[in-house]
Amino acid sequence: MGLKIGGKVEKVNGKELSYADFVEKYLARNQPVILTGLTDDWRACKDWVSDDGKPNLRFFSAHFGGSTVQVADCDTKEFTDQKRLEMSVFEFIDIWVKLSSSGNGGDDDGKLLYLKDWHFVKEYPDYVAYTTPNFFLDDWLNLYLDKYSMHDDPESYKARNEISCSDYRFVYMGAKGTWTPLHADVFRSYSWSANVCGRKQWYFLTPSQHHLVFDRYMKSSVYDIFEDVCESKYPGFEKAIWLECTQEQNEIIFVPSGWYHQVHNLEDTISINHNWFNAFNVSWVWDLLLREYHEAKGYIEDIKDICDDFEGLCQKNLAANAGMDFRDFFILMIRFALANLVLFYQLSTNKRNVEWSSSQLARLLLLNLKNIKCVTENMKSESAWQNRGIATVNLMKTIEDQPFIEFCNALGRTYCVTCNHIEINFDPNRFFLEHEGIDLYDLFRSRICKPDELVSFLDNALKLVGIEG
User: Fold this and answer.
1) What is the pLDDT of residues 316-328, one digit of tens each?
2) pLDDT tens per residue across span 57-101
3) Radius of gyration (Cα) for the chain, nearest Å?
4) Sign of the CA dihedral with 144 first, then 277, 331, and 416 last
5) Residues 32, 254: contact at Cβ < 8 Å?
6) By CB neighbour count within 10 A (0-12 exposed, 13-18 middle, 19+ buried), where does 286 fall?
7) Which end of the chain, N or C, is less packed with Cβ atoms under 10 Å?
8) Average pLDDT over residues 364-371
């Protein structure tokens, strides 16, 4: 059964594309694109690549060989993904060098091994391998995880889970022939992937057609689009229309939310990959969590009557399956709402910005706040929240905490770069002093426990500066 190819992914010179145009044409429309010309000054493109253009494997062994990494066995399926092995980078490189010298396409057992999801930035923070392009800086996921744990109650989770979601910045390394099965990204996030060396072949399916790669019960999806796909099990597959593209060395591909994709390494390849979300796709994150929650709940419905904390168990299973539960997501929304609101107030009192309310930065902050409110309104209609205060956040204490101040300033610096704005910094003492005419004290003395309380808080906060929520 052959694929129906409906077109190619657009390729654009990133140096000639403005951030506003990227947002309008690709981010807001959720469309893939390949960007060129953005990796010229990356250290990785020098250190990690040999003179012949292939991966400098000896460099990795010498400098990062002791790291423990996850390696996918591309020839062995385990559940819905490739089987994962754990080994050191040195061991992985040793296998790769041996297979390259032998001309064999795999290890001694004929297996193709692909190093995936290496948290390189977290492990080597002083080795600045690359600079995230401005197009991808508005990254709520990694900005948040740089200052906070994903699970606000880490004692409820194993340390290993904390390590695995410490950030979503990864390095991938694989020989020619390694590949990644059909999937949509974690949290239904955006992702970007830069080829430091090598070439990849991508196949994309738009979210409007994702049902065509699932079985008739919408339980399991196609694993490999080039295997013989059973027509009786996946009756819609032959109707799917795919986009394809070849990603060359030093090119970056933007993968939009919810697009299923399968990727093949056409040459020995090293890539840098980020998963991320922001105001434009945060609703996708909530929609996925809600679907995963109801699926997790359905699996254990038969023990509801004998379980002391059935809802708590559902949330624990949700966190294990999806990477966060409702509480994690809600606290993230509260902190982002506060940070954007603080920056919005700070911008409104900056005397150098007479037209602050119409600036690109003000529009972005307001968009963020309105989209957070929209998602939170959807959250409060979910029955799991009723009669249950899943989180209690003291707003005054939060904005005075050092991690929040650092988080707020990191977010502010990010937005000033993307919006070409003068830098603004958050000082909690100055923040209150400059708003003597506005009664912010009562507003921030509240606690937020449920989504409807966050919605009311945002409405009241925006009214203080004359903006209806």
Assistant:
1) 899 988 999 999 9
2) 999 999 999 999 999 999 999 999 999 999 999 999 999 998 877
3) 23
4) positive
5) yes
6) buried
7) N
8) 94
What is the spatial distance between Cα 273 and Cα 251, in angstroms, rounded to a whole number? 12
Confidence of residue 436 (pLDDT cuts 50, 70, 90): very low
Backbone φ and ψ of 49, nearest 5°: -125, 130
Residues 125-163 pLDDT 10s? 999 999 999 999 999 999 999 999 998 665 554 544 444
pLDDT of residue 261: 98
For 386-395, the pLDDT digits (tens) are: 555 568 899 9
User: Residue 308 in 3-state DSSP?
Assistant: coil
Distance CA 156, CA 175 (A): 39
Residue 335: per-residue pLDDT: 96
Residue appearing with tokens 């109707």: 239
Tokens of 281: 């796709």
Interatomic CA distance for residues 163 and 146, integer angstroms:
13
The answer for residues whose C-beta is within 8 angstroms of residue 101's C-beta and 6 or more apart is: none
**Residue ranges with strand state E in 62-146:** 68-78, 81-88, 113-118
* Sheet hosting strand 260-265, strand order edge to edge: 4-8, 241-247, 200-205, 260-265, 179-183
What whole-number distance in Å separates Cα of residue 32 and Cα of residue 139?
17
DSSP letters of 25-78?
A: IIITTT--EEEES--TT-SHHHHTB-TTSSB-HHHHHHHHTT-EEEEEEEEEEE
pLDDT score, position 161: 47
Local structure of 7: helix, strand or coil = strand
Yes or no: say if 250 and 45 are a contact pair by the CB < 8 Å rule: yes
Max CA separation in the chain (angstroms): 76
The 8-class DSSP code of residue 152 comes to S
Closest CA to 168 of 197, 190, 152: 190
CA 234 remoteness from chain centre: 29
- Confidence band of 420 (pLDDT split at 50, 70, 90): confident
Give the pairing of strands 241-247 and 200-205: antiparallel
